[in-house]
Please model this.
Amino acid sequence: MGMEGGSSKEFDSSKAYQAQEEEGQKFFDDGREIALLHFIYAHPKIDEIRGSPREVLKVIDEFGRNQKYLMNVGDDKGKIVTNLIAERKPKVMVELGGYVGYSCIMFADAVRKAGGRSYFCLERNPEFAAVIAAIVDLAGLSDIVKVVVGSSADSIKRLHASGEVQHIDVMFLDHYKPAYTTDLKLCEHLKLITPGSVLAADNVIKPGNPPYLKYVRSTVPEKLKQYESDGQAADDTSGFGNRTREQYKDREGEEKLSTEVKGNPSLIYESQLVNSFEPTGVPDGIEITSCIGEGQRGSKV
Model:
């Protein structure tokens, strides 16, 4: 079962982003992402920024604090994942949902420092993917990062079919919230997630992801029972609010979840919630889930 953990430190309000817009107002995909790109390249310190992942992150934070809110992982939650990368030293890391590339820059830099070889950043929106690619190039990370455009499920299938990704050492989930569970099950089915893999899931408190937490915190017998009773993987978005469920509907249309596979319920997970903060200062957390083994059908694990 999942356990709550993490630091009890207070949020440093001096580094807070602009507040996220209220319900009913656009908080992304309204031109701010392209405005960010112009802000970075017009920055008076552009020569210092070029080739420095750390400086690129600082200027993105500057925009988020002084211009407009950006739905980035932020420094506080980001450190949870960079510490995980330093500990696990992944050769291959996959990110689902790149947005403007903040987490891509932060984590790909950490993967490279840990001796890793590949960071795949999957982003559905081609405009956001173009922003990511430009910022990755500016940060000097093009040697390790590949930006993949398309729905997460389709991109996972393509990377698997091409042989580019045969195993995922660390996966960061920060995309369409109802797709966390279905995409994890797809990766299990394709044997991309196996014992030794680690998952880091963002936004499990804000806005929350009850279906995902239930799945990664369930025992093998609990998952097997659900597996045997389902005709296919669950395609249930009822546990999410309208803002989360319809977040990408205006631009991308109705989200199609990958429900043709039911995953591998025999995988044994250990899962822990690490409490932290959104870059605005709102409490949130990262669920860190390690795949520690594979049980036998009918086992009591």
Notes: The chain is about 40% helix and 15% strand.
